Amino acid sequence: MSTLTDPPKESFRLSMLIHDTRYRSLTFQAIAAVVLALCIWYLGNNLIQNLRAAGLNISYGFLADPAGYDINQRLVEYDSQSSHARAALVGVLNTLLVAVLACITATIFGVIAGVLRLSQNWLVSKVMAVYVEIFRNIPVLIWIIIIFTIMTAVLPGPREFRGDDATSSMLFDAFAFTNRGIYTPAPYFERGIFGSVTLNWLLVVAVLVGSFLGARKINTWATAKQEATGLRPNTLPIILGVWLVPVLLLMLIMGLSWEMPELKGFNFSGGIKIGGPLIALWFALSIYTGAFIAENVRSGIQAISKGQSEAAAALGLRQGRIMNLVILPQALRVIIPPLISQFLNITKNSSLAIAVGYADITATLGGITLNQTGRAIECVLLLMLFYLTASLLISMGMNIYNSSVKLKER
Amino acid sequence: MNNSVFFGALTVAGLAAGAAAAGTLDDVKARDKLNCGVTTGLVGFAAPNANGEWEGFDVAICRAVAAAVLGDPTKVEFVPTTGKTRFTALASGEIDLLARNTTWTFSRDVDLKFEFVGVNYYDGQGFMVPKELGVSSAKELDGATVCIQTGTTTELNLADFFRSNNISYEPVPIETNAEAQQQYLAGACDVYTTDASGLAATRATFDDPTAHAVLPEIISKEPLGPLVRHGDSEWGDVARWTLNALIAAEELGVTSANLSEMASGTGNPEINRLLGTEGNLGEMLGLEADWALKALSVGGNYGEVFAKNIGEDTPIGLARGLNAQWTNGGLLYAPPFR
């Protein structure tokens, strides 16, 4: 006969923290946490004590003081009497501008080079292999300087456009390529609907958004029709119309005109100037990171089993459609995660801007402001905060996109 | 624990522990080498010559201090610094003395906690333009693109000058003089602005210096001098009086030609005190009695150093101007050696 008894109830003993596997890991984690906290406390305390000993105190009051220096490329109102905080904002916008531009072009370069590297054409694939190997194996700082130097040395100065026997002339009398940057005509409205220029442009953007939504509706309708009947209606003319007609109409109503760049005094004035430093930095970041992205794309495509393209070919799809409809959508799942880190690299590498005199956040806040105020710790902390925030936001955005393209598992 | 956190922490600790210790004089003596911050290369002021040895007007100060303290003008480690890195290098103790045509300003002295030991060159900010532009005054520069070294006082002066004259310009910030020179010659900017002495030095290295003009306007006061860290007066005194010794020697007529003769004693008690044959000024500084003699034996007195590196007979060709002795209508005035 057997009786069921409760197992003897073990009382908790201190030694169990080490010897009992149920508690051991907790014990070590607690110890590690305490040690980590002590380390952080020690370092923080050390910093504060040394700063006090050196007679320095952390204060952000300087941000409100007039900056006293000028910046050549500014997306918001700024002059030398604006505050250091304003100068930092100008730098932030410049950093974001070059980062966004470079992310877009690097992706385009990368996808083209990655796909072409797998081309059947021996010459094309080898040329792309050479591009990838040359550009990703030379530091980006050197590329930035090379491109900038070539630009300033090869393109003519504004002086050479002057006079009757000028050695250089403007393209179509509208574009001027100089060693200080490219000048293009600037659009403006002669009779805007609103008094403010910004509002007029916002109206244009609103119309474009409307066209986008309309075009999507048409696509959905065409897809539904295709699924119902097996025939996809030719939507191209309708979509072109939806995109172009409202915008062109609006431009006509508001009287779109172009302000041409003109040589006045030392420089061209009027029109839009795309500065040489911006072009050099943008282009260098794009081709450098594009080489890395090309490799991501290639590995993503090669990760798709050959059976997929063979099956698609067996269904009678052409090469281009196989790539667009079968291979790339699947390859995106492999490509997106490493692409995130390439975008982060672009953002961080844009801090090399000062090498060509581009006024990004590292050049304004971390360069001139730091130097003129001597507030090194404060400025560097702010810089860290900015790059951390920007990188986390990019990661977040790309992760959301990644989850939208990844394999939906049920 | 995550390894990178640990190493990151070590780095921060290292930075935090790098606060400057007092007793630079003892440190220099113990190290038997003076760490001297200079420019990354400005001919006439500090640049390596064909043999890789640093020479120039600022370099001479470093060598004189090294000779006074260590008895050997070659015991100097030259640390090239940019406008941006120079103050961090000095504050962190990486260099003992900064002789890098640095302008003495209130905020650098008081807020950044440095001590300027004197002025070795009275300068002012000027503009250089190619002659073909036909500009004769800085006020005609409306709309010009201006190359400027970032992290310097010239950057602020420039903004003030254009604002007060109500004209516009476009700044091109540049890290070093060499880059600025390249940009200017390539025509990426119309004007190069920096201290007038620096402009003259830069122009001297051009293929055709006569094609470029320095405009007459001097838009600021730029007293350039060597500096040390705040709070170590003993070391500050050594640097200050070495500079003063060079200046006083010129006033007293002590040159490298008659130095050995005068070192054996003269009828002028001030020269005797300076050269250590009378009194104990060296001992007061914590140096040998003949410290000034050694400093002067490197390149002679201030006037000789000036003439050899940047004077009118050199390609740089600067006149003494404000940098003449007070007895000749200049501003150089060394306090008495007593």
From TrEMBL, chain A:
Residue ranges constituting the ABC transmembrane type-1 domain according to the UniProt record: 92-398
GO BP term (any one): amino acid transport
Top-level division of the source organism's lineage: Bacteria
Localization per record: Cell inner membrane; Cell membrane
Lipid bilayer topology: Multi-pass membrane protein
Iron-sulfur recorded as keyword: no
Annotated Pfam families: BPD_transp_1
Listed CDD domains: TM_PBP2 (cd06261)
Annotated Gene Ontology cellular component terms: ATP-binding cassette (ABC) transporter complex
SUPFAM superfamilies: MetI-like
One Gene Ontology molecular-function label: transmembrane transporter activity
Keyword Cell membrane: yes
Transmembrane segments: 23-43, 96-116, 137-155, 193-215, 236-258, 278-297, 380-401
Keywords carried by this UniProt record: Amino-acid transport, Cell membrane, Membrane, Transmembrane, Transmembrane helix, Transport
NCBIfam families according to UniProt: HEQRo_perm_3TM (TIGR01726)
Family: Belongs to the binding-protein-dependent transport system permease family. HisMQ subfamily.
Protein's recorded name: Putative glutamine ABC transporter permease protein GlnM
Organism: Tritonibacter horizontis
UniProtKB/TrEMBL annotation, chain B:
SMART domains registered for this protein in UniProt: PBPb
One annotated GO biological process: amino acid transport
Record-linked Pfam families: SBP_bac_3
Alphabetical list of InterPro entries matching this protein: Bact_solute-bind_prot3, Solute-binding_3/MltF_N
Superkingdom of the organism of origin: Bacteria
Keyword Signal on entry: yes
Cleaved signal peptide residues: 1-21
Residue ranges occupied by any Solute-binding protein family 3/N-terminal domain in the UniProt entry: 33-262
Keywords: Signal, Transport
Family: Belongs to the bacterial solute-binding protein 3 family.
Protein name, UniProt field: General L-amino acid-binding periplasmic protein AapJ
